[in-house]
Amino acid sequence: MKRISPGEGFIVPPRPTRVSAAETPKGPLASSLVVFAIIVAGLFLAREVLIPIAIAVLLSFVLGPLVNFLRRLRLGRAFAVLVSVLLAAGIIAAVSTVIGVQVAELAQDVPRYQRTVERKIEGLRAGTLGQTMDYIANINRAIHQGGEESKEAAEKAKQQAARDNPRKAEPEPPKPVLVQVEERRPGPLELATTVLAPVAQPLATAGIVFVVLLFILMQREDLRDRLIRLAGSSDLHRTTVAMDDAARRLSRYFLGQLALNSAFGLVIGVGLWIIGVPSPVLWGIFALVMRFVPYIGAFLSAVLPIALAAAVDPGWSMVLATFLLFALVEPIVGQIIEPLVYGHSTGVSPFSVLVSALFWTWLWGPVGLLLSTPLTVCLVVLGRHVDRLEFLDVLFSNRPALTPIENFYQRMLADDPEEAQEHADLILRECSLSAYYDDVVLKGLELASRDAARGVLTPSQKDEIRASITALVEDLEDREDAVPDPATKSARLFESDGESACKNGPIADPEPGELPAAWRADGAVLLVSGRGFLDGAATAIADQLLRKRGFGTRQVPFAEVARVRIAEWEPGPAQAVCVISLALSGEPTHLRRLVSRLRQKIDTVPIVAGLWRLDEPMLADDAVRAKLGADDHVTSLRDLIETILAIARHEGGPDRSERSDAATPPRQALPEPA
Known about the structure:
By secondary structure, the chain is mainly alpha-helical. Helices cover 62% and strands 5% of the residues. The chain has 23 helices and nine strands. Helix 20 (535-548) links the parallel strand 5 and strand 6 (553-556).
């Protein structure tokens, strides 16, 4: 801000409206693409090593709370880590053994299941479905009958020609010689290699997982410190607390997900056992594992049990019961129990979950599909707590990329009043109307004023923004200014770092009979717009909130109180005057002139100046009053309405001449600048 001669006041240079960009790696786009390609190639080529490490990292989050619990029992770190890892290894080994036994039992009964399926297919062929298929086949046969008859006629003609001229007949081909090949019996070494080859790679992967898991749990703090050093931070304390908090949150999330999926698998296994489906333990474990797959995991876990039920039961009752079991349990777990266990979502947007599932499946195969959601959650948490990785949070998280203020202004620029109304409805589920106006709308209008001061808004864009604001205010005319019922509040749709989009509650209404009759008359409060292109919209918002509290108001455009028309203007039964401005250029010079003209016209009522700025440094109160010549100035709608209400209460007393200096400061008759 530059100070010039007293007659000219202060000039605030226009500042651009900017959306804070997420921290991204520096360098040109080509360099970033090359780095990304190298990373993807490394992930693909080193998948044999990276997959066990990724599994070990995820298991460390699951076993972390158990290690901490054992350490609270005064056990050493090494002993606590060893017990936790051995317990996890034992559980995994037991589950793997059960799976092997169940699969072996299931394989023995495959011939019997095959006969049942064949009988069902024959029954379907004999029924209505079979008749329909035969009818379709007959139609197809009739269509191709002409071509087949011509082929048969040609074949018969060829055979007749061969009989008529036996010399030209082709000689019969020689009969094939049967050859029998006997395989050599494998030796002991070959037999052992054949048996152990399928399990060698899984055993090696499991060994790498548990070795890495031991080192991660043993050196967890050291790894955290190294990650902090790699990420870099100007605030070591804040970064350390953030990383520890992120680790705790991930541990709770993964542990909760494992417990929930285990309960889901248990319910499915017990239900299949009651229904009579063979190998219910196998299908329960299969449902547990497949539920880690996003979106389609529960569906895939139901396909095989339903197919097996169709192969076991000669009828269809077992198939129907199995289908109903999955159709009832999955919605209950996914839509009711899951939000209670670890919130309404994983913090990852649905589109990001889908893209990550495709990416990791393409990169690492089925294991990547199982790990896709946990890995994406880890990336989102890193991006939320590490400044240099913020772009990961922007790309993958379900938090809005723009703040509610920026979102509102973006909808105004896009000339989309319908989306602006939907945006308002979402925020008003948890905010009062006055808080929404104060914390979102007015600050969005300030962004538009700055762009207008820069000259980047065309006249048509200004007209569209004004029309959209007018339509929005009219749509909210019938809405009460009250805190929504907690039962109707949204799940923090617009939330940033734990804070709601609206910081304040509704403005208090005057008590019945508290507002004097003179303040209820039309034109009791004059709302004078500044010369900015959005000052009229801000004035309309203040007018709406004042009328909801019983004040009689009148909006006065800037043109009516301009220098050339102020003499013809009639203030009417005014009890107070509010000058409202959002413009940032030339303040407070033109407002000082406006207040001076109003003071000369109506010197018997208090004048309040409403100046709203997003982050401009405000002058001290005394300095603002001295420059503007107003009795008071406010920086929010809440302050404006509470100030008018305080003046009305005081003016409605027994003696208007005994106003306190606090309610109405002494007016300063400042000469109008040349």
